[in-house]
Amino acid sequence: MSRIGKKPIAVPKGTSVELKSQQVKVAGPLGKMEMECHPLITLKMDDNGENLIVDNPTPDDRNAKQLHGTMRALIANMVTGVSKGFERKMQIFGTGYNVKEQGGKLIFAIGFCHAVEMKIPDGIKVVIDIPATRGNDVPAKFSLSGSDKHVLGQFAANIRRIRPPEPYKGKGIRYADEVVRRKMGKAFASGG
Question: Does pLDDT of 191 surpass 60?
Fold first, then answer.
């Protein structure tokens, strides 16, 4: 029995969950999402209608055990996404590096001979707090927010992949809560 799978999903006020056989539709103040649940897993609402219960009718089946916690986590992310939403804060370190939003795209100037453009996916909102770095100490800051955790996380990972932080000076794009392990570099020994 999955410890995560057996936890009921609390449905907050202002959010509605609709079940049709294996189809789950969740609607809330931030949008609507739907997903097809796996046939090995059953879904039901409790008596009060406040909790969604994800059940595994065949606990001996290995595939059903694996899918139990996964389906519960995916549905819980949908409920959280349409009620509160998700946010990812990012930073850019490096002298002269900057980011701007233009025509539905993010444009990065991060040390290449050309600007790098990334199309912003539907449902993702970008807020740029500090557009350009100031020296090596004050980074450029921006945040991504949206209701779909998968789309948001993949977009943030694609942005970070443009120029991952390097270990010597720490230049590059990183998550705000990321810790970059730094290396010393070459130490010059004085010759005698």
Answer: no
In whole angstroms, give the CA distance from residue 85 to residue 67. 24
What strands lie across the sheet with 23-28, from one edge to the other?
16-20, 23-28, 31-36
Nearest to 118 by CA among 146, 91, 155: 155
According to DSSP, the β-strands at 31-36 and 23-28 are: antiparallel
pLDDT tens, position by position, 106-158 = 999 999 999 999 999 999 999 999 999 988 789 999 999 999 999 999 999 99
From the list 85, 78, 185, 77, the residue with the least C-alpha distance to 127 is 85
Q: Which residue segments constitute the domains of the chain, with CATH numbers given?
A: 9-83 (3.90.930.12), 86-175 (3.90.930.12)
Q: How high is the mean pLDDT of the chain? A: 91
pLDDT digits (tens, 9 = 90+) for 117-128: 999 999 999 999
Inter-residue long-range contacts of 66-73, CB under 8 Å, 24+ positions, other chains counted:
67/38, 67/40, 67/41, 68/1, 68/2, 68/4, 68/5, 68/6, 68/41, 69/2, 69/3, 69/4, 69/5, 71/5, 71/37, 71/38, 71/41, 72/2, 72/4, 72/5, 72/7, 72/9, 73/4
